[in-house]
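Researcher: Hi, I'm a grad student and pretty new to this. My advisor asked me to get structures for two proteins we've been looking at. I'm not sure of the right format, so I'll just paste the first sequence and hope you can take it from there.
Model: That works fine. Here's the first sequence with its structure tokens right after it:
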Amino acid sequence: MKKQIFMNGKVMTMNQEQKECEAFIVEGEHIIKTGSNEEILAFQKDKIKIVDLRGKRVIPGLNDSHMHLLGYALSNKKVDLTHCRSLEEIAQAINRYIENEDDQYFGEWIIGHGWNHENFQVPQLPTAVFLDEISQERPILLSRACYHIGVMNHKALEMVGFSQETENPEGGHIDRLPNSEKPMGIVRESALYHAHDFIPGPEDVMQIQDLILDACQDAVKVGLTSIQSDDFGAVKSPNTVLEAYGNLEKSGALKVRMNLQMLLPTLDKLQRFIKTTGIHSQMGSERLKYGPIKILADGSLGSRTAALERPYSDDEETQGVLVYGDAQLEEILRYGKSQGMQLAIHGIGDRTMNQILGIVEGIFQKDEINHRSRIIHCQITDHAIIDKMAKLHVIADIQPGFMPTDMKIVERRVGRDRVKESYNWKTMLEGGVPVAGSSDSPVEPFNPFLGIYSAVTRRNFDGEPKAGWYPEQRLTVEEAIGIYTLGSSYATFEENSKGKIQEGYLADFIVLDRDIQTIPPQEIKGVTVEATYIGGECVYSHEETRQK
């Protein structure tokens, strides 16, 4: 097998027994030795390739524990409304999109994403009447940044079949005009997901493969070597997603290591999927593995659909949405467990997290501590929830990159008394909760250095507040990198092969443009990647990286 020596680096190993080294040897896809330059060069033989790291900081490859890779790829085909600060700017963006549209990727539908009315100069939700002014001939659907609320024009409402006679679907809501049953265009949770079922999308396997490869190329540029992705919701058939990833893995084209999170929201869908595919968690190769089933148990804070124990502070008429009753959710999770499936449940509100933890406690025996069930998001917590997560060995999949956006609204949504025990990542780590780092892209960018910056500084991207938002919850740089390496690897039962630069581990690592451990924290968000290696192969290289 091919051997390579990497030397002259400032290598953060994430191995507590040897935190730093200068050099290491890679044989095939694995690291076989670490040490000083002198120690490693003593193993030099003829024809061994030497890579000079030129004193650069090297860290293990970063691992996003929850995102939507195919959703990210598809978002590049939609109207990007991320930077809109008014309804007028939304209209302008859609009209530009229509003028420059090369092909109708989603058929006649106009699909937009990323708007956040909390960022508008005048915070207000778009409506069907507003979208009708843009087009009455083509259906329009715009998803908010959280992807838990959307707005449709009347053409789209008609095509989906939402009318004044339509009842709210289970786990969702169709907003109505005042003193009327007529839909106003705003749809939440399962109502939004139902609308998506009517939108044409890529069904050709080759087309989906191209989308995946394009997204992976973007990912390696920011240092992601492993991705745990929830992609079943992006297309009509999960089997198409499985086939696309399988083809890429077999052909060797899939460079990023993928772990697939499988969105199967009903017992019927879960049973049919398992019976037809025979898949269970941890099946697969080092390049492509099948991960947990994914369940959406509530909504988001931005749309006030995250389920809370007490009403929202800025809307006492609502406590959010529990998508499932206790018995229904338990039936799905219990069946998943019986079929060898790891469990990953979306939970943002404290009511949802208590529901999930109560069910997990009931279906796992006290000695079944290695189930590694996961709660994705874990935003509105309290000390009792955190203590119970630690007791039950439940993993918290957090998104530090949410904080710069959420800090603008969360105190208004839930009040300071609840916020002070929420987004408590330091408390989680110190309390023994396994924590994995992620982006939830395309909700937020998947650049992990934005998440690391947020976790370390507790500031927004303008550097505010200078003292940090609840600064007692700041993580150290090592802790923040740890949740994107050690934590994310633990979440997929791969902590003995990923997340460290250590003998026997996969040679997945990245070379940075500056020393993330010594630069001012405010600079972390600007760290860039000079080279990304996966299995010892350079899959991305900046021109300043020199090999000899």
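Researcher: Oh nice, that was easy. Here's the second one.
Model: And its structure:
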Amino acid sequence: MGNLSSIDYIIIILYMSGMLVIGYALKGKINDSDDFYIAGRSLNFFVIAATVCASIIGGSALIGRGGVMYDQGIIGVMLAIPYLLGMYFFSFISGRIQKIGVRYNISSIPDLMEFRFGKAARYLTSGLIGFTMMATVGSQITALATVIKITGGFSYEFAAWFSFLIIISYTVFSGFYGVVYTDVAQFFVLLATVYIILPIKVVKHLGGIGEMIRAMPSRMLTFNFTPEIIGWIFTSLIFTFAGAEMWQRSFASKSPQAATRGMLIGTTIYGITILVTVILSFGSYLLIPDIMQTYGSADAAIPALAIKILPTGVLGLAFAGIIAVIMSTADTYLLMSVQTVVGDIIKPLKNNLTPSKEILYSRIGTGIIGILALVISLYNRQVYRALMFAWTFYAASVGMPAIAALYWKKATSAGIIGGMIAGFSSSILWSMLGAPFEISPAIVGSVLCFATLFILSRLTFKADKPSPFPS
């Protein structure tokens, strides 16, 4: 399988050990749940930008989307652009999210739902977020297992278990402090190796970008919109409205300005990496045409390219960068799932839960949720499909209600709860029916969610008894 030298392996091991050290060193900064989940609302714009970018360009973006581009061509860009546009939209509402969080002591979407619409809305939202974030961790374990499998020639099962242990080990100690500050380190390693050194080497090896494009078959340069691709595009866009991991970063910002500025910078850097991913995927297609036969999955396209192109030492750094970005995304979603289960479900049910007990439950929950994510990764071994499985039903059921909770004064409990139930149940039913007329379950669910939310809110809104609205 891989052609890494002992020097490369040493670099990778030292890097991963360094991440564990950072996580353990930050353990002492955690005094309560606010520290564990939102870093005490202390993050400046630079840290926000780094953690946002590192989280977005994780295993699903680099490994998963790279695999889609290797297999289906330029159409893979259309999986990235809707998310990019959605993140620009989210950047401009992140300041309001931060302000509401400080003013009303809100630290999550379920907190906001209870503030406006009651406990039923809170628990329903929490269940949807908890499952979605857990399943997303599964997609990142799949991505990291793919890289480790290539690196050492291990079985997928061994690589998945090893990935699970790495991710759990440093997330359980340091909470969100560990997540964001390892993100900063991983952000620089990733940019330097995977998004600067590797594409330069690839373009030089192929004789320039023009030569690379001319060598690609025409089908790879055609925007072939299949029903599956259209569904993924819609899901990626709607998901950004209620991406719990980005709401978490907004709540963790030290000011509205830090939230907005950090989101905008991180999103812009992500936009640049989309073009780099095209270069890497196309380079892999031309230089390693037998990816499927050799590695069993198109998801191996970019890691295999690094092995082929980069020299000893730099190769180790590149793999450290690839591992870094996957770990960054995985720890983000793992912590988000834990926050939802412990902070948004268990804590409200146990009124006497002390801060130390909450942190203990959170660390135990990290292990349990990680195991469930591992099961998903062992069942679904294609990164992007695993991600879309996680996101589709969530986007259909929570995307519109989250925006309504933030901005629509006339939204009611009946409208929000009815909309979420309609979106979730209809998207699942549509999926079970095999997506009739080749229409994505995310589209059907989102439309019915919005319609139900709007109609029920209009029917049940009482001008003299509006729901609390955060100013």
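Researcher: Is there anything I should tell my advisor about the second?
Model: You could mention this: The chain has a mean pLDDT of 88.
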